[in-house]
């Protein structure tokens, strides 16, 4: 091997080394510095949280469905549950596999589309017999902030801006832990979040 070839080889090895350090740094940024990279919710002086801004542009991760017709006419969370993760929290979860401090997850409810619905609440459309989304019918939010909510297991606080058509409430107070947090603690797959129902999150977790 000539000296020139050897020098070229060494230079390219060094270049690859630098590139991998740079890309590694980019990938681990959330692990080193979670809190400053994650957008936090806005809280009012009375401790209530402000309605999030533009949650429908967050990362949409799933739409569990509990039709009223399958729940005695009155599902606890009627009916579609559209779940959106605030994008900076999603990126951190993808990078580290953990929900960072500051995580915000919104759940917006919609009714099912009404069109000659049958006994199970299904309608028959050009796509077949089944369920489609109708109108917005409520908004909830969970926030992970163990500094602000030291008494909430896992630091997760839960809020509702109303189970009703828009406009939703502008702000909401955290529910006591037994109202919401306890069921999430008992049944959710990953740190109080029901990732068992969200393939998008299972695929993203630690994938960066
Ligand atoms: C009996 C169990 C139970 C209770 C009580 C409960 N939840 Fe949930 N929650 C769920 C399930 C199951 C999901 C998964 C998605 C779905 O089906 O809505 C969920 C999902 C959520 C999500 C989306 C993030 C996630 O963890 O998947 C939010 C936000 C949420 N719930 C808010 C609330 C609020 C606010 C309350 C209290 C008023 C509450 N929950 C009470 C069972 C519960």
Keywords:
208 residues; alpha+beta; Chalcone isomerase; 2 domains; five-stranded antiparallel β-sheet; 9 strands; globular; binds heme C
Number of domains: 2
Name the CATH homologous superfamily of the largest domain. Answer: Cytochrome P460
Q: What distance lies between the first and last C-alpha atoms, to the nearest angstrom?
A: 39 Å
| Strands, total number | 9
Shape: globular
Low-confidence stretches: 1-5, 8-29
What is the helix fraction of residues, given as a range? 25-40%
- What's the rounded overall pLDDT mean? 88
Helix and strand element order: HHEEEHEEEEEEHH
- Classify the secondary structure makeup into a structural class: alpha+beta
> Beta-strand percentage?
15-25%
Profile the largest sheet. Answer: 5 strands, antiparallel
Short recap of the structure:
This protein has 208 residues and is of the alpha+beta class.
Care to describe what's here?
With 208 residues, this protein is of the alpha+beta class. The protein folds into two domains: 32 residues; 171 residues, Chalcone isomerase. 27% of the residues lie in helices and 22% in strands. The protein has five helices and nine strands; from the N terminus they run H-H-E-E-E-H-E-E-E-E-E-E-H-H. Helix 1 crosses helix 3. The longest helix has 30 residues. The protein is globular. Bound molecules: heme C.
